[in-house]
Amino acid sequence: MLKADIDAFYADQASLDPQKYLVLKYYFESLVDPREAAAHLCQEMSTAQWSRVGVEEDYRPEFGAKVVELKVLDELAQPSSPFLASLIGKPYDKVYAVNATICYPYGNFGTKIPNLLTAVCGEGVFHAPDICAIRLLDIDFPDSYLADFQGPQFGVQGLRDMLGVYDRPLFFGVIKPNVGLPPEPFAEIGYQAWLGGLDIAKDDEQLGDVSWSTVRERTQRLGVLRKQAEAKTGEKKIYLTNITDEVDRLLELHDIAVANGANAVMVNGMTTGFSVVRMLRKHAKVPIVSHFDFMAAYIQLPWFGVKDQVFTKIQRMVGYDALIYPGFDTRMKASEEDVLANADACLKPMGSLKPMLPVPAGSQWAGSLKPLYDTLGTVDFGIVPGRAVFGHPQGPRGGAASLRQGWEAVSRGMTLEEYAKDHEELRLAIEMHSH
Amino acid sequence: MLKADIDAFYADQASLDPQKYLVLKYYFESLVDPREAAAHLCQEMSTAQWSRVGVEEDYRPEFGAKVVELKVLDELAQPSSPFLASLIGKPYDKVYAVNATICYPYGNFGTKIPNLLTAVCGEGVFHAPDICAIRLLDIDFPDSYLADFQGPQFGVQGLRDMLGVYDRPLFFGVIKPNVGLPPEPFAEIGYQAWLGGLDIAKDDEQLGDVSWSTVRERTQRLGVLRKQAEAKTGEKKIYLTNITDEVDRLLELHDIAVANGANAVMVNGMTTGFSVVRMLRKHAKVPIVSHFDFMAAYIQLPWFGVKDQVFTKIQRMVGYDALIYPGFDTRMKASEEDVLANADACLKPMGSLKPMLPVPAGSQWAGSLKPLYDTLGTVDFGIVPGRAVFGHPQGPRGGAASLRQGWEAVSRGMTLEEYAKDHEELRLAIEMHSH
C-alpha cells in the first residue's frame, strides 16, 4: 500500500462521532509492518476499493474502518500457527503480535446481526493480507446502536420473580438420560428433581422435537407435573424446553410449549442463528435461554477466532434472558478470566438492556458453587449440572437436594464436608464426585 | 470409563442399518488411550447418561454414537495446541493423533440443520474429555436423510440455462466501490461490466439493505439496466443482489428484489443461519448464492474445527445454487486440496440433489482461470473478481472483457501473453496484475 493509503485508514478517535462507530478490539499476528497490516485489514473489512476508475472520489472518510490505536505486544520468532503463516507464502524473520483498536462506521450495514457479523468477523477480517492469526476480542456498542435491540424480556430480575428466589444462585438441571428416554419417565424424573429442590428442569441441548419425544408431549407432561411440584413444595418452578429446530418451526414450537405449561424455552443460538433468536424475542411469552453449541471453534483458541464475550454481548442484545456457556471444568476448556469476562458481559450496564443471567456450565455438582461464587462475587448466576442431579445414588430428588445443601454450606461459611455430616444427599454427592 | 462401557460405544459397521446412521469422520488428538477417548467422545455427543438410577435399561444400542473405525496416525511429542492441552490439566508424555469414523443414529435429532450441528459439532464434540484438538472432516449422509432436503432449485444446469452459457466457466464480478457508492452510479458500472462480457454482476458481501443504498433502489436500477445490457449484447445476464438481513426481513427482500428484476439473491449463510436458507429455498423464485463469511474460524486450521466440505454439503442440502468459497490465493488461506474437495462436494452425486456451482474466490483476474480449470478439470465453476473488473484501467467494461479474453486464451491453448498481443483489455489486465 502507498503511505497515503495507509494513512487514510488511521484516525484520531476524538475526531470521530462516538454514536456512529463501533469500537472493535482485535489481536492479530502480522508478517509485515503492523501499521500497514492494520490499514490493509481496515481496507478489506470496509471500503476495499474506494473510488471508481477515472472518477475523483474517496469513500474512505465516511465508510472506511479506521485504526485509532495500535500496540505491538511482542515480536515472535514463530507465529501461533506456522501453518496459516505458510499459506500466505511469504518469507518472514519475525512475526508481530499486535492489539489494534478499530472504529467501524456502522452505517455501512446498520443494526442487523448477520451484517454485523460479516463486517466484524467475515471475509475481510479472516482473509486480510499478511495477517496469519486474528481474534476479535471485544466490541463496544454505542447507545445509538443498542437502542435498536430489545435485549432480555425478563432478565435476571424477571427470572428471580418467576421463581421467587432472590438470595442465591439458580439451580438448573439437565434431565438425563438426555437422549432416548420416552416423555413419561422423562417427565417423572424432572418432577422428582423439582421436589428435591431444583429450580429449573431442562432438556439437554441434544434433545429437540423428535418422533420419540415431541415437544408437545414433553411440555404437556412436564407442564402438569410442574404445577404439582409447585403445589407440593410451595416453591415456583420452571420447565425449560429445548425448541431448537428449523427456523420456520420455531414460533410454532414456542407456542405449543407455552400453551402446555413450559415456562421457558432454549434455543441453541449459534446453530440456529442469532438473528432467529432476535425474531423469536419479538414473539416470546417466556424467557429464552441460550446454549453455547457450535461456538467452540471461535472461542477456544486465545489467538484466533472471536472471544466469547463478543458473542455474549450479541446474545444479550438479541434478547436471551439466560446464557449457558463454558465454565470452570477441565472438559470445558475455559479460563477463569473467560468465565468472569462473560459474566460481566451478561451483568454489567449495557445501554438500557436488562442483565442476562450467566450460567457457566460443565460437569457441575454441589462443589461447583463456592468457586463460582468466589470468582463471580455475586449470587446472580446459575449452575446447570446433569449427572450430579440425575445420576445421584438416591436419584434426582436426592441429587437436587445435594445442590441446595451445597449452597446452604456456602452461605453458612461451612465446608461441604462439615455440612454433609447431617445431610445425607450432600454426603453421597461428595462420595460420587470423588470417584 | 469401565471397559464394558468403552466397548458399548463400538460397533461393527456391517451390523448397522446404513439408512439410519450418518457416517462422521473426525481427526482428534488425545492425551489418553485413543480407544477410550473415542468412546468418551461418542458418549458426550449422544447418550451422556444411558440409564436412570435404579432402572435396568440402556439407551446406547439405539441412541449411542458408535466408533466403527479408529486409526492412530501418529504419536506426537506436542499437541497442535499446547494451550488447549494445558486447559485439560492432565500431565502427558505424548499425544495420539487419531482418525475416527463414527456412526451416528440420526433419529436422535432428525433431518434438522440446527440439531444436526449440535450433534456433530456441538458441546459434546468440542468438549469431549481428554481430547485437546478435534476436527470434523466429513459427513456421509444416507439417501434416507438427504431425501428430506430440497437441494438446489436451479443448480449448475439451471444457472447455465438462465445465461445460455454451456461451454465455459461463469464470470461473476463484485461491483466496486463495494461500500458507499450510491445506487445510480453503482448500477451504471454494473451495466458497463455486463456490456464488457460479465455474466453475473453482484453486490459485495458487505453491502446489504442500507439507507444509502436500499435493495429496492439497487434492484430497480440494475433490473432495468440488465434488460438493456441483454438487448445490447444479445447475451443473458444476472444481477445477484445481497439480501442478507435479519431473518424476518429475508423473504420480503427476496420478493422486492425479484419483482424489480434481480434474478438471483445472495445470503451469507453462516451469519444468517443455514436453516434460514432452507426456509428461503422453499419460497425462492431465483437462484440463491452463498458467501463464506464467518466460516474462517471453523475451516482454516487443519487440526481444529470443521473441514469446509462439511459446510459445503450442508449448503447444497439447504438449497444454495452456487457457493462462493475460499479459493487459490495467498489471502484466502485455502489449500489446493481444499479447493478441489469443495468443488467435489458441490458437483458429485449426492442423493437426488442437483449439483451446485462451485465459485472459488479470492483476488481473482483473467490469470486465475487456467490454474482453476487445471485443478478442477471441468468448466463447471465460476470466478468472482472484484477489482480486476471494476478497477481495470479502462473501467468495468474493459475489466469484464479481459476475463472473457482470458478464457478465450485458455480454450485455444494459448498463453495469456500471446493472446494479449491482439487484445488490449487483457494486456492491461496483465500489466495491472504484475504491479
Folded structure, characterized:
2 copies of one chain form a homodimer. Helices cover 43% and strands 18% of the residues of chain A. The first copy, chain A, is of the alpha/beta class and 435 residues long. Chain A folds into 2 domains: 3-146, Alpha-Beta Plaits, CATH 3.30.70; 155-434, Ribulose bisphosphate carboxylase, large subunit, C-terminal domain (TIM Barrel, Alpha-Beta Barrel), CATH 3.20.20.110. The relative contact order of chain A is 0.11. The model of chain A has no long low-confidence stretch (mean pLDDT 97).
Q: Which pair has the most extensive contact?
A: A-B, 103 and 103 residues
- Rg of chain A is 24 Å
Please mark out the parts of chain A with pLDDT under 50 across 5 or more consecutive residues, or reply none: none
- Report the sheet-strand fraction of chain A: 15-25%
Question: In the CATH scheme, what's the topology name of the largest domain in chain A?
Answer: TIM Barrel
CATH architecture of the largest domain in chain A: Alpha-Beta Barrel
Shape of chain A: elongated
- Major sheet of chain A: 8 strands, parallel
How many angstroms does the end-to-end distance of chain A come to?
A: 61 Å
Provide the fold topology.
Two copies of one chain form a homodimer.
Chain A: H1 3-7, E1 21-30, H2 34-45, H3 60-63, E2 66-76, H4 82-88, E3 95-105, H5 113-121, H6 123-126, E4 131-140, H7 143-146, H8 155-163, E5 170-174, H9 183-196, E6 200-202, H10 215-233, E7 238-242, H11 247-260, E8 264-268, H12 269-272, H13 274-283, E9 288-291, H14 296-299, E10 305-306, H15 308-318, E11 322-326, H16 336-347, E12 357-361, H17 369-376, E13 382-383, H18 387-390, H19 396-411, H20 416-420, H21 424-434
Parallel strand pairs in A: 4-10, 5-6, 5-13, 6-7, 7-8, 8-9, 9-11, 11-12
Antiparallel strand pairs in A: 1-3, 1-4, 2-3
